Structures are given as C-alpha cells and as structure tokens.
Automatic annotation (TrEMBL):
<dbReference type="InterPro" id="IPR000847">
    <property type="entry name" value="LysR_HTH_N"/>
</dbReference>
<comment type="similarity">
    <text>Belongs to the LysR transcriptional regulatory family.</text>
</comment>
<dbReference type="GO" id="GO:0003677">
    <property type="term" value="F:DNA binding"/>
</dbReference>
<keyword id="KW-0805">Transcription regulation</keyword>
<dbReference type="Pfam" id="PF03466">
    <property type="entry name" value="LysR_substrate"/>
</dbReference>
<dbReference type="InterPro" id="IPR005119">
    <property type="entry name" value="LysR_subst-bd"/>
</dbReference>
<keyword id="KW-0238">DNA-binding</keyword>
<protein>
    <submittedName>
        <fullName>LysR family transcriptional regulator</fullName>
    </submittedName>
</protein>
<dbReference type="GO" id="GO:0032993">
    <property type="term" value="C:protein-DNA complex"/>
</dbReference>
<feature type="domain" description="HTH lysR-type">
    <location>
        <begin position="15"/>
        <end position="72"/>
    </location>
</feature>
<dbReference type="InterPro" id="IPR036388">
    <property type="entry name" value="WH-like_DNA-bd_sf"/>
</dbReference>
<dbReference type="InterPro" id="IPR036390">
    <property type="entry name" value="WH_DNA-bd_sf"/>
</dbReference>
<dbReference type="Pfam" id="PF00126">
    <property type="entry name" value="HTH_1"/>
</dbReference>
<dbReference type="GO" id="GO:0003700">
    <property type="term" value="F:DNA-binding transcription factor activity"/>
</dbReference>
<keyword id="KW-0804">Transcription</keyword>
C-alpha cells in the first residue's frame, strides 16, 4: 500500500506521461537501449528521465546488474498503474480528436440528382444544425459516375441506385430506402391511361420527357417500356431532374420519377401512381470497403440510416 501512496503523490506532483512511457518501454524490453529505440529517443535522455521518475517516487524502479534489468517491488507496483494511465490518456486523446473532427472538417457526399432533390434536403439540414462546422461537399451524378469517384477516393460516401454497375470496385453498401416510381404530367394534359393509375403499356404513344444517357431512371423506364413490347417516344431528352420537371410542367410530355421527388416538387404537376406491380428503385449508401469513412462521414451515414 505504501507504494500506491507514493505513486499517487508522484502523479499529483511532477511525474510526466513521457516518463511513464519510458518506464513501460524499459519494463517491457528489459533493456535501456532497445527501449530508447522503441520510443524514438536517445538512450541517455531516456535514462535521465527514468532517474528523474525514481527521484520523484523516492524509490528505485529497476535493478541494474551487469546488463540484467529487472523490476524492483516499486517497479512491479507501478507497471500496471502506468499502463492504465497511458491507456486512459490515449483514450482521452482519441475521444477529444473524434469530437474535434465533428467541429470542423468536411464530408464529400455523392448522390444522384433525384436523391439530392428528394431525400437529402431534410437530412442535410439536420446534420448542419447539429454540426455547423462541417463543410458538406455534394457531387451530383449517375450511379456509374459516383462509383468511379468512390473508387478513386474523391468521395467519402455516395447514395447510389442498386444494383451497382458490374464490374465495380469493392464497395460496402447499406440499403437506405426502396422507393416507388410515379408518372408526372401537366395538369392541363390528359392523364395517360385516363384512370387512377397508369400501366406501363399506357405509356405507348405518349410523348416522354426523358433523362440523359447514364441516368438510372432513364435506363429503368426504357427497360420497362421494352419489356411491355414497345419503344418509348421522346418529346425531349437529355435533362437533369429539375429540367425534366420543368419540361413536364410546360406540357412537353410526361415523365417517370421517384415518388419522393414528385411530392416535393409541389404545384404544377399531376402525380399518378403506376399500377401494380409498378416500378421501384432501391437507394443504398456506399463507401469503399478498404477505407473506413472519416468520423464526420460516419455520423452523416448514421443520420441517413436513422432518418
């Protein structure tokens, strides 16, 4: 018990973490030179710090006999406590560092334009309110482009449409949502199919406002039309989500879009569900499997999954 009292007094006095690191290194290697190499310090400096620690404690920590280094009773008493103190200090540094990362820094998030319009605004607002020091860098693109940007390290996370393009780099994906697609049209134009729902065959002969090549929704809509036995007729093509919605409002044609986007788009559009089985898409959050996302990105990931 007297050694514990002596150690406690020393801890409250001039004992330093660096001295404890040197002490543990010598205790584990049983060699002053090897210990000095381990902690990247000159051997004389290490020896001086060990002697200073022994003076502070008022007891020898090592028996030095012809190069044979062993722990004294005081050294044996100090060793587990020193290891615990150093471990607690490392934990404290880690925890503080994690908090600091959430006060400043950045998150590089990729998303398809429709996800940017439908899913992200509310989540990003909540994230920004909680972590105002984190810069949010958003890159819009198709899933193919976003997968490529993830692979080269230009993004931390990406919201992509499953299934991923094949072949694709090693990515970890977590499903975020499964979303229905709906048909949007101008309120002044007749509803395709003239009913409460639209069947895919009802789109035959309709003028479609179509997204650009490489856009997930384009590929999904065209594939559904072809499965129904016809080629879609495009009134205008090549736009991003906002442009497509604007063209539909102007009466240029109809479009197939995610329900969440149609809901947020507000006035100026008629929204008609697709008849069962309908069309759906699965949105997933992806990151590289070989690199853990930064702390701030992991927090945004958590908020997206818990939204």
């Amino acid at each position: 018990m007297e050694w514990l009292v002596s150690i406690a007094k020393a801890y409250g006095g001039g004992m330093q973490f660096q001295q404890l690191q040197y002490f543990v290194a010598v205790a584990e290697t049983r060699h002053f030179t090897r210990a000095a190499d381990l902690v990247h310090v000159a051997q004389p400096s290490l020896s001086q710090q060990i002697k200073a620690l022994e003076r502070e404690l008022g007891a020898d920590l090592f028996l030095r006999a012809r190069g044979n280094i062993t722990l004294t009773d005081a050294g044996e008493a100090l060793l587990p406590l020193a290891r615990r103190i150093l471990a607690d200090a490392e934990t404290a540094r880690h925890e503080v560092g994690e908090l600091v990362q959430l006060r400043s820094g950045r998150v590089r998030l990729g998303a398809t334009p429709s996800v940017c319009t439908g899913l992200l605004p509310d989540v990003l607002r909540a994230f920004h309110d909680r972590y105002p020091g984190i810069r949010l860098l958003i890159e819009e693109g198709g899933s193919h482009d976003l997968v490529r940007e993830l692979a080269r390290g230009a993004l931390d996370l990406a919201l992509v449409v499953l299934p991923l393009p094949s072949p694709s780099p090693a990515l970890t994906t977590v499903e975020v949502l499964r979303e229905d697609l709906v048909v949007v049209s101008s309120p002044d134009a007749p509803t395709p199919g003239r009913g409460r729902t639209v069947r895919i065959p009802d789109l035959e002969g309709e003028r479609l406002v179509m997204f650009r090549h490489g856009y997930d929704l384009r590929e999904l809509t065209v594939a559904a039309c072809r499965s129904a036995g016809f080629e879609p007729d495009f009134a205008v093509e090549g736009g991003e989500m906002d442009a497509v919605l604007g063209f539909v409002r102007a009466g240029l044609g109809v479009a197939v879009v995610p329900r969440m986007v149609a809901t947020r788009a507000g006035r100026g559009l008629r929204v008609t569900p697709l008849a069962r089985p309908g069309l759906h898409r699965t949105i997933a959050l992806a990151h590289r499997s070989d690199v853990a996302p930064p702390r701030a990105a992991r927090e945004l990931q958590r908020m997206l999954l818990e939204r």
